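Chapter summary example: a protein plus adenosine-5'-diphosphate.
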Amino acid sequence: MSEYILEMKNITKEFPGVKALDNVNFKVKRGEIHCLVGENGSGKSTLMKVLSGFHVHGSYNGQIIFEGNEMKFKSIYDSEKVGIVTIYQELALIPELTIYENIFLGHEIENNGVIDWNKTILESSNMLKKLGYEMDTSKKVKELGVGLQQIVEIAKALSKNVKLLILDEPTSSLNETDSENLLRIVKDLKKHGITSILISHKLKEVLEVADTITILRDGLTITTIENKNITENDIVKYMVGREIEDIYPKRHHMIGEKLFEIKNWKAYDKKDGKYVVKSASFHVKKGEIVGIAGLIGAGRTELAHSIFGNPDDYVVSGELYFDGKLQKFKSTEDAIKAGIAYVSEDRKGNGLILDFDIKTNITIANLKKLIKNGVYVNENEEIIVSEKYRKSLKIKSHSIEQKVLNLSGGNQQKVQLAKWLFVSPKLLILDEPTRGIDVGAKHEIYTIMNKLVEEGMSIIMISSELPEVLGMSDRIYVMAGGKIVGELNSQEATQEKIMTMAVEY
Ligand code: ADP
Ligand code: MG
């Protein structure tokens, strides 16, 4: 028996105008966890779709050898029959159905042509138990959070007698606890002999779980290497194809006097009927990047929202000083007028209008700037401004007329940044500025942040990624349970110190 459960040889896959995969070779050892990494668009998902039969035999060139035999899948069903199961980036469960219905959907347990529901329910619970979860499987999937939905997907894979499990960016929408659970399960499955291919842009997690790592770039296999022989910096270098001495670029900036300060800040959430910010006092100086760290649910986003003037959602108390004056923002417009901008964590939800083009998204928050002599929207100016940002922020797109919907996550984030830069705020609040984007685009966003503070802007960065908080902040505040529980300067801060504050308040 070969050491390799899977060999993909010389795979080439073209779409109209794009060679997504160019002679890719990819070998996976039996029983290992093999991580596949690469920037957005490097071909990871396409390679896995070739493997799963989503892109059918004949639509690509090259060979797939699975357990020693050549495979010519005509559908996903064919690959699942031999034990290759993919969990896609977009979850494929049916929200209206129960957990057990979902787990056995498409391969129902039958008895004389009739579905055996008792057995279905029993087996579903067993699958979940194997994964360490005891739950009522008659719940509808829509009642579960994304974390549990992923678990149900894995249970579904187990029910199909999976030999090779493929997870395409499973943790990108999960919080830390759910991500850790998922990775624990993948490691557990390994103990039971199940081979996994894990696609992830979170290099920390890749380095934690991988036996072997393959790096793709622009549709080419750059290298396959054992985890123990590679560092995070090497991976980044292979991914982006250029030297990055440091993921976090150096900056040369002058920190000035206090620009912003809140004292005894409290925010009461009207909808939830409770205090989401119980006590927060902190300040930001001119030209400073202040990081706000904390666990999910610590109240960081609520803090930002309450500062940004959302009287419909929150009742706030305490003092807010901005630009030397005690201020009260009755609306977000007030906050914007004063010079504060907030880039939300949820790009798709409320940051951008996906159906509109780049140009409109960039200028929409500040159309005033485009009014000349009382005439609404100076279109020429709109084009010039958007082109300027498209170039300076390196927004990858064919033109400013392209719909934001079709951009990658990193480029959508840049459009959001451009939108608020056009407002030219004094204080920019960035909420999870690099969530879900690849390391090359992250580096570019950090570079933009540095340039802004060098020009005198101040930034509050809310982030759950501790390396990012440590790499980018001049000072760090830690939030827990709705309170700011500690402050650290960049020299003294470590991941351990932050975590200790975040959990022990
Ligand atoms: P990754 O998963 O690494 O982010 P993908 O495999 O999704 O990358 O995409 C690789 C390239 O192929 C990209 O340039 C993408 O735009 C293109 N591509 C992927 N799927 C399609 C498709 N169905 N039609 C056209 N182009 C596609
Ligand atoms: Mg992908």
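Key point: The chain has a mean pLDDT of 89.
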